[in-house]
Amino acid sequence: MEKKNIAVVGATGAVGQKMLEVLEQRNFPFNSIRLLASERSAGKKISFLGQELTVEALNKDSFQGIDIALFSAGAARSKEFAPIAAAAGAVVVDNTSQFRMDPNVPLVVPEVNAADIEKHKGIIANPNCSTIGMVLALNPIHQVAKIKRVVVSTYQSVSGAGATAIEELKTQVKDWVDGKDLVVDKFQHPIAFNCIPHIDVFMDNGYTKEEMKMVEETKKILGDDSIQVTATCVRVPVFFAHSESLTIETEKKLSAAEVKELLSSAPGICLLDDPENNQYPMPYDLAGRDETFVGRIREDVSHPSSINLWLVSDNLRKGAALNAVQIAENL
What we know:
- This protein is 31% helix and 24% strand.
- The chain is α/β, with parallel strands linked by helices and 331 residues long.
- The chain has two domains: 4-127 and 320-330, Rossmann fold; 131-315, 2-Layer Sandwich (Dihydrodipicolinate Reductase, domain 2).
């Protein structure tokens, strides 16, 4: 691959740190790398490929000479600076929600719709972490049996809310053990030993913004507005990796064996489905892995043409950093 000058915007955050880790692990071919973050993070040192790199303050002149800019610094920063980066000649891969549903911006999971990358006009959107894992499993099924409807419930780790959320769970667990009152800051309620059915803000239709992201992004990535999707997104006291329960109704009936065969050879998917030996995907085992793991595949006893399955995907890796780097590799 041709070597590029790259920038990582939000380099000190949880996803930004993971982007650097993935770039390093995958030996991404670059000439230079520029680490960008807020004014308060400027001057921090980050180790990368055996060197100590200094974080620079993000500003309108940060993208001169940059070929690819990986953004993960919040939607407001992307809204302001992604067009500036694109105007300076960089291709932006944006991990925020800012551009995902913009009709002029490709929304890409490389294993599913890599061809859409070529349609970019300077900005490419990285989908929501929960959507990425889901569409990896849906796409092979949709290609052979056409999906009519998806019902998804997510069990999302605290790392999806950032580094401070990880620390909040750690602190609350320790305080609970010590008999102290739990301090709530990042979430609406204590997250330790709890499940909170509230991720992002509530919309007028009663769904949360997170849930509607899954509804809308799935249709865009799969290129089929006829697919009906309904979602319930729940935050759970897990540090890394999101889990999802899917019910998938198809036009053509598929057996559980047929679905297992489809997914066993699907890119980005690893089949882990041996319930007789207690083998199924769990975030405890699979955090840090690049693959999306699928198991508990079974025919829906309530519907003649429906499949149930369970999946686990690391939200910081495939759900964010890895997917962005894969897009950059395609570029």
